[in-house]
Amino acid sequence: MFPFTLEKAGSTQVAIAAAASGARYIAGGTTLVDLMRDEVERPERLIDINRLPLGDIRVEGEDLIIGALARMAEVAADENVKRLQPLIAESLIEGASPQLRNMASMGGNLLQRVRCPYFRMLDAGCNKRTPGSGCAAIEGLNAGHAILGTSDHCVATHPSDVAVALVALDATMRVQGPQGERSFPVEELFRLPGDTPDLEHTLLPGELIVEIRVPSGPHARSARYLKVRDRASYEFALVSAAAVLAIEDGVIREARIAAGGVGTRPWRLRACEAALGGRKPDRQAFEEAAQLATEGVRPLHHNAFKVVLLPRTIVRALEMAGEVA
Amino acid sequence: MKMNVIGKPLTRVDGRSKVTGKARYAADFNQPGQLYAVLVSATVGLGRLTGIESADVEGMSGVVALITHRNAPKLAYLPHKAVIDPAVGERLHVLQDDSVRFYGQPVAIIVADSIDHAERAAAAMRITYDARQPIVDHADQQVARIVPGTGTADRSRGDADAAVAEAAVKVDEVYDIARENHNPMEPHATIAAWHGDRLTLWSKSQFLMNEQAEIAAVFGLPVDNVEVICPFIGGAFGTSLRTWPHVTLAALAARHVGRPVKLVLTRKQMFFTTGHRPRSLQRVALGATPDGKITGVIHEGTGETSRYEQFTEALTAVTDYLYSCPNVRTQYRLAQLDTATPNHMRGPGEASGIFALESAVDELSYKLGVDPIELRRRNEPQIDEAENKPFSSRSLIQCYGLGAERFGWVRRTPEPRSMRDGRLLIGMGTATATYPAFHAPSSARVRLLADGTAEVEAAASDMGPGTYTSMTQVAAEFLGLQPEQVRFGLGTTDYPPTPSHGGSWTMASVGSAIRAACLEVQSQATRQAIADAGSPVFEASMEALEWVDGRLRRRGDASPGLSYQDILAKTGNPIEVDGSAQRDPETAEKYSMHSFGAVFAEVSVDPDVGTIRVRRLVGAYGIGRVVNPLLARSQCTGGMIGGIGMALMERTVLDVRDGRPVNAHMADYLMPVNLDTPKLEALFVDEVDPHVNPLGVKGLGEIALVGTAPAIANAVFHATGKRVRTLPIKIEDVLTA
Amino acid sequence: MAENSSEMHSSGPIVSRREALQATAGAVALAALPLQPAAATSSPAGVSSDIAVAMTVNGRAHTLIVDPRQSILDVLRETLDLPGTKKGCNQGACGACTILVDGKRIVSCLTLASMHDGADIQTIEGLENDGELHPLQAAFVEHEGLQCGFCTSGQIMSGLGCIAEGHVGSPEEIQFWMSGNICRCGAYPGIIAAVADVAERS
Ligand SMILES: Cc1cc2nc3c(=O)[nH]c(=O)nc-3n(C[C@H](O)[C@H](O)[C@H](O)COP(=O)(O)OP(=O)(O)OC[C@H]3O[C@@H](n4cnc5c(N)ncnc54)[C@H](O)[C@@H]3O)c2cc1C
Ligand code: SF4
Ligand code: FES
Ligand code: FES
Fold first, then answer.
1. CA B297 to each of CA A180, B19, B288, B318: distance values in angstroms, whole numbers, following the listed order
2. Where does ligand 1 bind, in terms of residues with CB under 6 Å?
3. Chain B stretch 700-729, residues whose beta carbon is closer than 8 A to a beta carbon of chain A
4. Is B540 exposed, middle or buried (0-12, 13-18, 19+ CB in 10 A)?
5. Which residue among B71, B479, B532, B705 has the highest number of C-beta atoms inside a 10 angstrom radius?
6. What is the pLDDT of residues B223-254, one digit of tens each?
7. In terms of domains, do B605 and B710 share one?
8. What would the pLDDT profile of C39-68 be if each residue is shown by its tens digit?
9. Contact B20/C123 with Cβ under 8 angstroms?
10. Rounded CA gap, C149 and A156, in Å?
11. How many domains are there within chain A?
């Protein structure tokens, strides 16, 4: 680990000022400390934000507000979350482990870095870690990599589970920075790798995630998250899908679908959603819609199975959502 | 023989120290003044070191020493090989020259005052290489397949090729098992401390005597100058059988800096130089008559090894004796690759070999339309047909009977894809497990104290099976004491030598030695009593006396008799005996000795997304005498869980471009977690084997893993109708079923 | 070396220099890293400056000077000589290092000591009460919740967290909520039974 100095932020202003002058936020540290130990991350200054009052989970009107420092475990266990947005709770407990969920913050979760093994290996080419050094995964082992949103420079998936749920639910986030405050859809936080895979998100220098807002909707309760993986727990998704259905009079009024494990960012599938509008929630409709998910896929040497698995995962997630609808 | 303590479900005598965190594993023995060492691993797969930028690193905060081949002392590396070292080839010499033979080879060692300082310096090392293209892909057709230098392991009886060719029903398939790493929870660790030319190692080892001898040979020291201490092992599964280069490096570093040094491998480094289950490629061809008599068996397998040593394992051995068949041909070859030397991993060659054989037999059962258990019944041999010897005991058919009943095999409908639970496809499969009942010469010391309690010592190990507990039971049994009156110690080379803790032979070997020592202690006590004029048995003949529950009396006498205290009170001196035992060579010649078992698996497969989950496993084993049913069950269910890993999760994936293990990470090398645990049942058939050893034990550490993977694979076929001949079986393998 | 050969046979834990130092310093001990100045040194950017943290470990207060990089795991094992907490991966991926910080189970390998000034830490070494095993410790022995014992400290600490969180309604629920602790020996059936047993009794 590179040496660093540690400062503790007593207020948001202090934190932002420190970050604006080059310090790196640290919350739960489950991404950052891990990568610092491998020297993939080498911050010289850390600003500990854990004492900032950003851990609340509350309801405003019908919207759910989740503070950036709320821990994954707290959010998953929160009564309001379970009542208003069970999809969020479900996607959270399918991620990581109970211990990690006690540590990891929601803000940190969205900004967690890729699990591409070459990213962690300083002796492998990786454009994301070391711009211009090439991408070892494209010609290497890439069973876990993305089939959507890839570029010739990077093919790593975004690993977060809850981000998939948040993107499906049209959540927005509020950030504060040296230039003030702004809000935008969570989906817009994530960049495609393009030819600058080192730039992963759209936060401006020094910007601090303050909270996440999840709007309510008629569909919120008929929502399910399905995570497909080789072992039953404590593994990142091979493919995952968040499916949300608003069904009225036996007909789908609105559907929301997002997928994980397949895209270089949490992948919203609007074409699939559109195909479901007005249809009966049956397997045939689900299958037809799910086929649209693989438009534009670019499978690699070892991950072509995801092209098959993605639509199947979506179908199952839709069926599960239909069952609770 | 009636047993009082053996056979009882005693809870672990070391349980308390483990649940309180007081059990000390190698890395827990912090020494005063200790420094920390971190290895630097090669980042090319083959080649030479050309440059080392060390100036910066040596000046870094906390760094005490940087050792590379340039400044490392030339080590003696005297010839030394133990049974677990490959017979052909020479061990890796570390930091002795500039060559890199495989990715991850240690090329430098940093010693610093803290872990963080050492790790930082190790990461800052800039090493340049003249790299060449390593060849690490076993399936690469250009890789030569050689006959092991130890001589051929090929065997043949009858004409298997003709028999298979002419058979009415045939199976002829290729099976591919991934390279695996042991990945015990405890990383390899060594703390080394020198006192002049004497070296103490607190080091993770399954074979203390060999670690002592190996390090003595490497450093050119008298064996007695090296002491190895390892009271607890945090799991090993074979990875700590050999003494790997890091032990040498820890000792070398400690000598270099003149202080105790602690070296713990990182989880990533656990994939480099500490052995692995070699990837195996196997062809099995079976021929049978329409009514299910196997007429021909061909089993050809290759394992992989390094370029500097030839690691061999018994990949095709089980095929020689498992079925009755006049025409059997087995062949074993090695592919030499630019990789570190593999080594034994739980159930080594047998586990890999039996996956191929038992998958093929299952395939045959479907072709024949014969129930898999019935097929095995029809081909059950009366004797070991390869050796032409009787089995010392073989309860395979009883195992199938017991297991099938507990498992509910009758509920299985034979047709693939015919069973469902809601949307899920259900499959049931079975397979045979077998493993040799090994035995190696061992010794042990028993000291009977004047207070009537006993101390028992052997340089054995306990990596989890419960050696502490089961040996306590053996000693208590043969001394006629309560387990609480026996203190058993292991884990130091100061104790009498034992063989390695592996190969499922610890109880057979060490247990027999303890038994021998206990019996000798008892007879010395008898002689003392007889010689004691004040004793009621003064001048009695040995034959006229008997020991009952730890008391000596005249045969048929109803009096309470003499306790050990009574006898030892006279002199007040303890009786100390070093005992030893080995298998009677004549008996060994006469019998074929193996454990057998039948494993049953029920899996569910999600027809949409391909998720495979094991729902139930039942294993029925014939392993001779069960010393402690509680421990035996744990060991078996643990082995079955390991088998789930082998079947569905475990593989070390190499990047063929430079030979690096890409998933050298605890989160990327999948092993079962708690939620993967199915309903598990381990059963033991009553089996008395009077030949294997005086204890009648056949060992169960390995067999517990051996049959599980094929049983699961066979269940996956039954569920899906898709035969997967590669391990591990992944979601993508059944997705298109 | 007899005293080091086996915990079971030792007359007591090995006394290291550091422990001796703490013992003389009383309840509040100053445990310096070996070879490091005990005082915080300020240094230019890019160089860690050691910082002081106060933490309570198993009810005992410590003031420590730590390198900001040090994990709580390393502080416990190397500085405080409390090696009951194990390092299985140092990557957050095995659970062997699980401890309770302010009552919550966390992995100590990814937790910087420098960020936990004032923390209340419980480790496996603190569970015994006057030589009496904690019921969960006793249950692990009774139900064979261990084999090699290396994952056991983490399992037990995690089990305490699991019980406190109330995720013990059924064996399946326990399995789900205990899946952050890998046991390579496969002692899972006993672990489930031990946690269920104690949960039922408490
Ligand atoms: C073994 C393992 C398994 C895992 N499995 C899963 C899984 O299955 N599913 C899953 O979703 N995740 C998984 N994770 C990832 C885990 O969820 C993330 O590491 C965690 O959510 C990150 O949160 P944190 O608070 O610890 O972030 P930190 O490590 O503290 O920070 C991460 C990043 O976010 C930045 N940051 C943090 N907070 C803010 C803020 N408020 N504003 C701006 N920037 C901020 C930091 O500067 C840093 O760059 C796993 C992690 C591990 C180690
Ligand atoms: S896929 Fe992305 S993260 Fe992985 S090696 Fe390529 S550039 Fe790096
Ligand atoms: S050592 Fe911390 S999770 Fe493995
Ligand atoms: S008891 Fe050995 S790893 Fe769990």
1. 77, 50, 9, 12
2. A 24-32, 34, 68, 95-96, 100, 103-105, 107-109, 111-112, 159-162, 208-209, 236; B 667; C 92-93
3. 728
4. middle
5. B705
6. 999 999 999 999 999 999 999 999 999 999 99
7. yes
8. 333 344 445 689 999 999 999 999 999 999
9. no
10. 37
11. 2
Q: Which residue of C has its CA nearest to B266?
A: C89
Contacts of C147 (CB under 8 A, 6+ apart): B235, B464, B465, B466, B634, B635, B638, C183, C185, C186, C187
Q: Ligand 4 site: residues with CB under 6 angstroms?
A: B 185, 235, 464; C 146-152, 183-185, 187
Looking at the domain assignment, is residue A292 inside a domain? Answer: yes
Q: How many residues does chain C have?
A: 202
In this structure, which CATH number among 3.40.50.300, 3.10.20.30, 3.90.1150.10, 3.30.930.10 belongs to the domain C51-126? 3.10.20.30
* B492 located within any domain: yes
The alpha carbon of residue C125 is apart from the nearest alpha carbon of chain B, in Å, by 6
C51-126 and C135-201 have identical folds: no
Q: Would you state the pLDDT for residue B142?
A: 86
Could you tell me if residue A97 is inside a domain? no
Q: Whose CA is nearest to atom 2 of ligand 4?
A: C148
- In whole angstroms, how far apart are CA B388 and each of A87, B393, C172? 65, 14, 50
A237-266 pLDDT tens trace: 999 999 999 999 999 999 999 999 999 999
- B47-53 sheet: strands from edge to edge: B99-100, B47-53, B126-131
Domain C135-201 belongs in CATH node 3.40.50.300:
no
Does any ligand 2 atom lie closer than 6 A to the CB of residue A155?
Answer: yes
All residues of chain B having their beta carbon less than 8 Å from the beta carbon of residue A230 are 611-612, 648-649, 670, 728, 730-731
From B358, B520, B702, B732, the catalytic residue: B702
- How many domains does the structure of chain B reveal? 3
Q: State the pLDDT at residue C48.
A: 60
Backbone angles phi, psi at C192, to 5 degrees: -60, -45
Work out the widest C-alpha separation in chain A, in whole angstroms: 62
Which of A1, A233, A238 minimises the CB distance to B731?
Answer: A238
Chain B touching partners, 3 or more CB pairs below 8 A: A, C
Which residues of chain C neighbour B23 with C-beta distances below 8 Å?
7, 149
Decide if pLDDT at B443 tops 60.
yes
Residue C82's contacts (CB-CB under 8 Å, 6 or more residues apart) are B21, C57, C58, C76, C123, C125
What length is written for chain A? 325
Residue C82 amino acid letter: L
Instruction: Residue B513: give the domain boundaries.
Output: 15-22+440-582
Please tell me whether residues B603 and B700 are part of one structural domain. Answer: yes
Q: Is residue A79 part of a domain?
A: no
CATH classification of the domain holding A36: 3.30.43.10
Q: What is the pLDDT of residue C13?
A: 33
Instruction: Report the residue from C46, C91, C104 with minimal CB separation from A44.
Output: C46
Specify the CATH number for the domain of residue A237.
3.30.390.50
Residue B562 and residue B624 share a domain? no
**CATH number, position B246:** 3.30.365.10
Q: Both B542 and B575 in a single domain?
A: yes
Q: Do residues A37 and C105 lie in contact, with contact meaning Cβ atoms separated by under 8 Å?
A: no
Average pLDDT over all residues of chain C: 82
Q: pLDDT grade, residue B629 (50/70/90)?
A: very high
- Neighbour-count burial of C156, counting CB atoms closer than 10 A to its CB (0-12 exposed, 13-18 middle, 19+ buried): buried
A308 burial via Cβ count (<10 Å: 0-12, 13-18, 19+): middle
Q: CA-CA distance, B593 to B588, in Å (whole number)?
A: 8
Element (H, E) at A307: helix A305-324
Q: What is the domain partition of chain C in residue ranges?
A: 51-126, 135-201
Domain co-membership, B215 together with B360: no
Q: Active-site residue B576, yes or no?
A: no
| Contact between residue B189 and residue B34 where contact means Cβ atoms under 8 Å apart | no
Average pLDDT over residues B69-92: 97
